UniProtKB/TrEMBL annotation, chains A, B:
Catalytic residue positions: 195 (nucleophile)
Its job: Catalyzes two activities which are involved in the cyclic version of arginine biosynthesis: the synthesis of N-acetylglutamate from glutamate and acetyl-CoA as the acetyl donor, and of ornithine by transacetylation between N(2)-acetylornithine and glutamate.
Catalysis performed (reactions): N(2)-acetyl-L-ornithine + L-glutamate = N-acetyl-L-glutamate + L-ornithine; L-glutamate + acetyl-CoA = N-acetyl-L-glutamate + CoA + H(+)
UniProt keyword Ubl conjugation, yes or no: no
Listed pathway(s): Amino-acid biosynthesis; L-arginine biosynthesis; N(2)-acetyl-L-ornithine from L-glutamate: step 1/4; Amino-acid biosynthesis; L-arginine biosynthesis; L-ornithine and N-acetyl-L-glutamate from L-glutamate and N(2)-acetyl-L-ornithine (cyclic): step 1/1
GO cellular component, one term: cytoplasm
The protein's name in its UniProt record: Arginine biosynthesis bifunctional protein ArgJ
UniProt-recorded Gene Ontology molecular function terms: L-glutamate N-acetyltransferase activity; L-glutamate N-acetyltransferase activity, acting on acetyl-L-ornithine as donor
Signal peptide: none
Gene: argJ
GO biological process: L-arginine biosynthetic process; ornithine biosynthetic process
Enzyme class (EC, first level): transferase
Listed EC numbers: 2.3.1.35, 2.3.1.1
Length: 413, 413
């Protein structure tokens, strides 16, 4: 947790309603931080349907291995998340730590170890002392309460500068259901690595396969469309739980992701995921500006996404934004290096509503002063039209500042 | 040109011999800089065999288009290089500028426009006023001299902090030939974009197709194995010219790149290209340390290269190096995100001679103090063994410092 809150932080936090069927508790287990909560327990009253998407890293953390191995049966009774130690690249010790944690949580909740899901964030390569959980999980299970979302979001922060929460509601077959989510991002001062964790819970009654389909589709235009620094964590975890408590209001269970009754829920979920993802970008390490990059006219949506990410990950583009420099030449460079089809002489580029380049050269009407005014804003919209097809994509990133270098160049210990 | 020379600059410049068959001149045409040379003319006494490799950008500069279009006939009489303006993304004006420059140079040298090669470096998107060359190229052709390599290297600098020169000699069939090269890299204070330009000349008598084969092979483990910030210029150009003047000493022309007489030449050329490439890295924007990353045990050489580049381009790895932090967890992260096959539990990582991680966890003998001593050096060797196959690769990069952000975040104008 940083002393200084990101200038891009929300001015207020969402008022988070309870979700029937889930309770939470936090504790200070002393994993790494002193005098702050660092463990979160989520406990489900009855088995919740579960879906998850995880890091594509070939070197995933031990908790990611655990979640992947257990996701198949689709039911969750509990979730344990800790900050301060990622339990990644910890070998056999890491696996032993996840086993001990799952066993402790299963005993506390009276369920099977394979109904417990785990996530850890913090330093890589340090063995995680899971015995620290054993002493606290029993008490946490007893004291868990439903009205605890903001506290839960705080407990999973590492050096995020603000907790990330979001809530939405939707109707399924005339019954109102709620979706709550929390996330942590990348605002590191001392630890090793950005780790994105997010947990979303709904009281809707939706079967696990349908839930997984909704989540897999929803992650693409939200969390998979943001980048702070192009570095992919070993621990990225996004999970969605459905407690099914809305069945008490007469919501009949939805088994199929294509069920038309899910239209509103899908839209609300996608909107919540985007909300959380943008909160992560706005708390990117050292961030002072957010950049929304839209690519249109590419050969395909996939090509548009690749071009947009090439722009979003370019250090030269990101430092130009930090310097409030409408440096569209670097956008051209990033389009050119993406590897996707582009025709220099058809490119057009906008900052905000101002077209700065067209037909392969600077816009004849280009005004440095007007463009600079756009760059001086906090949110910078960039649009690139490739002029070849109908493919489009939008991604979000932040600027690259000296603070990013300071945060990540400071010595680890 | 920066006022402060990179701390990684060579302590002295190579003593550059003349190459028979080529003469050079520089001039101050006032493209962008005041009171410094910004145009280089290389003039060949007789048609030189020519080979070139260029940026893979889909948005290449007009001079790159010109060179690619003319490379087919394999002969060069002259080269014009300017700094201060990249003539990239300049539309029809850009093409007109290359045509005017080629025509002016062809008139000055009495040859065809398609025997003139062009390169430009500097700001993207600004029209290049090629009439500035027309007035100076005639005088430059008359005054060109053979003993001018260091001056030539200086004329093509943008904000490089030192000129980059290298020389080697080799024997072909008992005749000694010389290879000289110059390069410019990425040490930008105010302009828009890193642009890598390099020109290599030999007096050997080698046919263009053989020359191209040598160059295409030589560029892979040298210039294609360095990265400063992962951003690919629209203007990257590496050209190799053979004047054939060694024929006067009895060297018979080599037509085939596989001719065994080229063994020594090939080794000398490869060594010179690596020398120049490392000089470019050592003058990377804001660089204070050079990192040599060797990956062994990958599934293939290509996989090893991709993993090594994933490490070399990781902002988190590069900021850790800047902070003298032996943060091997970020190496694990970068291996994991590369997309190439890796087994977390077989990975081993070394900083210098110190193994910091093995069998998927921290080395039991890990010493923070000993590893920190390695990180405090100027050149940091990193080795990663993937433990899967025989693929290997070495790449070079520099650290990511606050100066990089300052250099590239400063306003363009």
């Amino acid at each position: 947790m940083s002393a200084t809150v990101s200038p891009l932080a929300p001015t207020s936090y969402a008022d988070m309603p309870s979700i029937r069927g889930v309770r939470m508790a936090t504790a200070a287990a002393g994993i790494k931080y002193k005098n702050r909560t660092d463990v979160l327990l989520m406990a489900f009253d009855r088995p919740a349907a579960v879906a998850g998407v995880f890091t594509k890293s070939k070197c995933p953390s031990a908790p990611v291995d655990h979640c992947r191995a257990n996701l198949g049966h689709g039911l969750a009774l509990g979730v344990v998340v800790n900050s301060g130690n990622a339990n990644a690249f910890t070998g056999v010790k890491g696996k032993a730590a996840t086993q001990l944690t799952a066993r402790s949580a299963a005993e506390a909740l009276g369920c099977g170890e394979n109904e417990i899901y785990l996530a850890s964030t913090g330093v890589i390569g340090e063995p995680l002392d899971a015995t620290k959980f054993a002493g606290v999980l029993g008490d946490m299970a007893k004291g868990a309460t439903g009205d605890f979302w903001l506290e839960a979001a705080k407990a999973i922060m590492t050096t995020d500068t603000y907790p990330k929460v979001a809530t939405r509601s939707a109707e399924i077959g005339g019954v109102t259901v709620t979706i709550n989510g929390i996330a942590k991002g990348a605002g590191m001062i001392a630890p090793d690595m950005a780790t994105m964790l997010s947990f979303v819970v709904t009281d809707a009654d939706i079967a696990a396969p349908a839930l997984q389909a909704l989540l897999s589709a929803g992650v693409e235009p939200s969390f998979n469309s943001i980048t702070v620094d192009s570095d992919t964590s070993t621990s990225d975890t996004l999970m969605l739980f459905a407690t099914g408590a809305a069945a008490a209001d007469g919501q009949t269970k939805v088994e199929d992701a294509n069920d038309p009754r899910l239209a509103g829920f899908r839209a609300a979920l996608d909107d919540l995921l985007k909300d959380l993802a943008l909160q992560v970008v706005r708390d990117g390490e050292g961030a002072r500006k957010m950049v929304e990059i839209t690519v249109t006219g590419a050969e395909s949506d996939l090509a548009a996404k690749k071009i947009a990410m090439s722009i979003a990950n370019s250090p030269l583009v990101k430092t130009a934004v930090a310097g409030e420099d409408a440096n569209w030449g670097r956008i051209v460079m990033a389009v050119g290096k993406s590897g996707e089809m582009a025709d220099r002489d058809r490119l057009a580029i906008w900052f905000g509503d101002i077209r700065v380049a067209v037909d392969g050269e600077r816009d004849p009407a280009y005004s440095e002063a007007a463009t600079t005014a756009v760059m001086q804003g906090q949110d910078i919209p960039v649009r690139v039209d490739i002029g070849l097809g109908a493919g489009k994509a939008t991604v979000w990133t932040c600027d690259l500042t000296k603070e990013y270098v300071a945060i990540n160049g400071d010595y680890r210990s």
